[in-house]
Amino acid sequence: MKVLPTAFLDAMSSRLGDEYQSFINSYHHAPYAGLRVNTIKMEVAQFKELFPLPIEPIPWTSDGFYISEGARPGKHPFYHAGMYYIQEPSAMTPVEYLGVGQGDRVLDLCAAPGGKSVQIAARMGRDGLLVTNDIHPDRTKALVRNMELYGITRAVVLNERPERIAEALPEFFDKVLVDAPCSGEGMFRKDPEMVKAWEREPVLSYAAMQQDILDSAAKLVAPGGRLVYSTCTFSPEENEAAIARFLTKHSDYSVVEVPLSHGMRPGRPEWASDCLREHDWEASAEAVAAVSRTIRLWPHHVKGEGHYVAVLERAGERPYRIANELSIARSSDEPCPYNPNDKDILPSTGKQDRGVRIRQRVQDNALDARKRAGKPRTDHRQIRTESNKKGLYRPDHDQHEIFVRFYNEHFMDAAPNINVCIGSYAYVSPLSIEVLSMLRVVRPGWFVGTYKGERFEPSHALALGLHSGQAKRVYPLTIEHPDVVPYLRGDTLTIQETDLELDDHAASKGYVLLTLHDCPIGFGKWVNGILKNEYPVAWRWTS
To answer: Alpha-carbon distance 439 to 161, whole Å?
Structure first.
């Protein structure tokens, strides 16, 4: 058994009583490993037929599977195709209770490295809007990579403080996930480094941070929307007591009772009461009682690590929305000035007063930000910086034409609308540039490529966000094909024209989409029997 801190063992012994020995015995068992199928790219049934390693279903999710401890699924070509995400089994639980549906606006507030964001995106399919955020700049690199690898095209990656997002997008999201930074007690079996971190950072510092995050999250949820709070710790200060304090401050929220199954256990109100007395915290008796409807996953009751989940809903009626309401990017192919009085972005069912108020808030917040920075007010039509194109700007007509010409040459469907650029990089964003310009944006949307003068060069993210039926040139591979690993290594391939699947009217020369069992893995550029490899250097197969 791993050496655990004495203070932790004493606290757990006091709280668990007769259960304590079973809890301690669980640390003699190796941690469980899991993966979750990326249903954006592949159905679960097809994955089960193709995946060569033994797997066992995780009972609380329809697309998750246990894998053996030494399986190394990260070294399999299917991982490079974004077919699955490697994730600890208990960590799959919070998104299951978020209730994400097609067309939802969802925020993952503390998202890095992105496992739960990928899970949310799979629930949304290719509709809706995902904003995924982390306050630590270095951690957002993993978010960006995972959004690309898993073919997620309707996501914005932020590096922003929760309160700033709440200022910019009040009551905007249908679903908000707060997978809060925590003391990590539930991960002691899986990650010994968490023990060292626990000894350095006291539980109470996390508890204070969590209250601040929850206060901001409360402002982001639309009336009738859902907020799911989760941690990977056992500490009641960060779990039951945190929710009791939150409910006391935010009377428009209530705990949703969800059925317990597969060994899950209820929250412990008595532990919340003990914490409140010990730390002189305030919470109402009703709020304390409500935490009995929250969820605990214990390593001696489930095949997974320790987790806590609280499912909360905000009172009120869920607002009616149309596709191009405030902050959703316009669908027109032509760049256009922002006009807060445009009739086509107003809701049409008596909700206009709220839409106008939020639009005014967007403009006021942008003006306040400029004042704080000592900058004069700028008309929205002048967001683009003509001289050096720093920051976010709308692409001009010529840039649209260059991209559309490229896309029509290589793909069969209508070109997506590039509506945001940063320097020479082009994006398809689900948020308007007015909102993006108010926030610290790492990735404004689907990164589709780079302008090289009059030429457009596609990105790897464009390839992974497509499906094989869109490309005019496809090189279809299966796991047995000898070119799979050489391509992932970055090798140049020799391929006959007859090996390519070509649209009836397509020339063989040009960008080719390589697929692995119909899942895109990247681009190559074919000419005269040679496929120049476009697989990114930083992603290449090294084993």
So the answer is: 9
- Which residue numbers are catalytic? 232
Other Cβ atoms less than 10 A from the Cβ of 526: the count is 22
Task: Provide the CA 95 distance to its chain's centre, in angstroms.
Answer: 11
- Three-state SS annotation for 25-48: HHHHCCCCEEEEECCCCCCHHHHH
Sheet holding 493-494, edge to edge: 493-494, 530-533, 519-527, 510-516, 473-477, 501-502
Query: Which residues does the chain have with pLDDT short of 70?
Result: 1-2, 320-390
Chain segment 147-204, per-residue pLDDT in tens: 999 999 999 999 999 999 999 999 999 999 999 999 999 999 988 888 888 877 789 9
HSE-up of residue 95 (Cα within 13 Å, Cβ side): 28
Rounded Cα distance between 29 and 297, Å, is 16
Contact (Cβ atoms closer than 8 angstroms) between residue 89 and residue 303: yes
Q: Which whole-number Å values give the CA distances from 323 to 166, 184, 310, 327, in the listed order? A: 22, 40, 30, 10
| pLDDT tens digits for range 222-237 | 999 999 999 999 999 9
User: What proportion of the chain, given as a percentage, has pLDDT over 70?
Assistant: 86
- Taking alpha carbons only, the member of 331, 330, 325, 374 closest to residue 351 is 325
Helix/strand/coil (H, E, C) string of 339-376? CCCCHHHCCCCCCHHHHHHHHHHHHHHHHHHHHHCCCC
Q: How far apart are CA 11 and CA 188, in angstroms?
A: 15
- Distance, in Å, from the CA atom of 19 to the CA atom of 1, rounded to the nearest integer, reads 18
pLDDT one-digit tens code per residue, 284-304: 999 999 999 999 999 999 999
Strand order through the sheet with 420-422: 392-393, 420-422, 425-428, 446-452, 455-458
What 8-state DSSP symbol labels residue 252?
T
Residue 519's Cβ-side half-sphere holds a number of Cα atoms within 13 Å equal to: 27
Give the whole-angstrom CA distance, residue 1 versus residue 192: 11
68 exposure class (CB count in 10 Å sphere: 0-12, 13-18, 19+): middle
Token couple for 356: 């106008």
Partners of residue 221 on adjacent β-strands: 173
